[in-house]
Q: What sequence folds into this?
């Protein structure tokens, strides 16, 4: 996906979030429905596609499915940051060699944490 397409998609997601989806947004999203894609597009989507889930549990299940499919050992890292973790809850990050991930916030700036892809 090119940058301009990313910007278009981001705009659609922002409008969906506030309940202001347009007819053009709906038309574009409908055009990307699996039944309207070629075999090549479906294969690429399976590897690189963006998936939207209405519930966190569905996203978690899909993430675990993709991790297990890599065939690499999966490691689990437990969050120790109490600023963003409610008392009594733990955040667990599951990673494997070959998994895609993104660092969204660096809370340990003293060591200048960096992740490359």
A:
């Amino acid at each position: 996906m090119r940058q301009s397409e990313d910007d278009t998609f981001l705009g659609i997601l922002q409008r969906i979030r506030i309940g202001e989806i347009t007819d053009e947004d709906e038309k574009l999203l409908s055009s990307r429905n699996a039944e309207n894609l070629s075999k090549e597009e479906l294969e690429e989507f399976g590897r690189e596609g963006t998936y939207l889930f209405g519930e966190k549990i569905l996203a978690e299940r899909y993430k675990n499915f993709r991790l297990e499919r890599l065939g690499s050992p999966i490691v689990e890292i437990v969050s120790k940051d109490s600023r963003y973790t409610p008392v009594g809850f733990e955040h667990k990050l599951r990673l494997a060699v070959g998994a895609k991930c993104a660092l969204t916030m660096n809370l340990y700036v003293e060591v200048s944490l960096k992740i490359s892809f």
